[in-house]
């Protein structure tokens, strides 16, 4: 009797567990060397020859062509970490991989997968308690936020800028969108532009997008602008049905031309008389309409994408209008200044101040595409973690100190757990040690020696991390050196890594259809 297709492949028992665990470990290992301030970069080349150079864990895993379903679960861990808190993606993936490695050792010792899962979940609860104990008691002020941003960006590609100088810009951006209702993270955007040193990176109080005026004669700058956002085509209307018109005389031709001219003039007059200084439309604008509006001193941008139009409307307070006859002054948005700038072959529009200032843009500059791409990723992560730290008000020591504390507390609690589950709880602590071990290896230090020294310092001082300052590597209190992370980043890494590892460890049957 054939229950499944003859082409189906089935792997069961230890073979299935081993295959899945091996795949998960391999993915985690691929990003492990990128961890920490001395982490290395990866060069990723796709089938089309496009190159990405980065040490961002989420980017690396998403750019890799991963097919194994268990390995994809590790990628999902990284994606979840990125989506929830914006950073710690490499930590989460590496921790998940090492939890799988420890689970494999336990399975070989005939510890049942269910026991491992129960032990891991109990250990994760202890880990969360340890994180709570490490939260800094001081209020999260701008100085701590700068430390959070700098810690996030240290070791990432920031061009000619230091992480410290970029941290100032990041904190200023997040503070700008901090409201009574919380941090409006979506109101901070990052726009990249090639063609200058990264030192030219700046914060724009408004929005920036790739657009040029619809006519060369239009003003390049408008102050105290009244802004209309349209979903209207300012061109001769055409029917949806193909049709032909027979013209038998010059009079008929002139009448047709006059009708078109009248229609276009009507568009220009309606817009000009509305009082709008600047018009953004998602549709096309006829040259004659653009020329007429240019003569009236109206600045027009045509063919905007829906997302850009939505962003302009949201930032300026404008209401999108789908029929020109409905355009009223109450639909207008406002901005202190709208201007266009040319950078090489690219034209950019800047909408600044006024209602638009509720949205801010980090305008990133860099000499090459690779530099601005990596800067964009680094700043994006920093914005996320600063927003997370500001909203939660909780930060913990970085540099491996929190992981040392987690492992120490888990081992201490494991002594009171009976049965084989104790083995799983202890294995979880061993897996957490991978973070300080990897930080040590990436600085050129011996992981075993550093781990022993960190444990001893933690035992005597209560807090100890691996501090990297220039070429010097020391063991000290990370808070004293401004190396801090949002507590939620650590919590999310523990929870997502545990969830993925336990899910994979429980799989003992893989059925694949050809």
TrEMBL record:
Residue ranges of the region described as Disordered: 1-20
Protein's name according to its UniProt entry: Chaperonin Cpn60/TCP-1
Keywords per UniProt: ATP-binding, Chaperone, Nucleotide-binding
Family of this protein: Belongs to the TCP-1 chaperonin family.
GO MF assignments: ATP binding; ATP hydrolysis activity; ATP-dependent protein folding chaperone; unfolded protein binding
Record bears the keyword Heme: no
Keyword Metal-binding: no
NCBIfam families attached to this UniProt entry: thermosome_alpha, thermosome_beta
Source organism of this protein record: Natrinema altunense (strain JCM 12890 / CGMCC 1.3731 / AJ2)
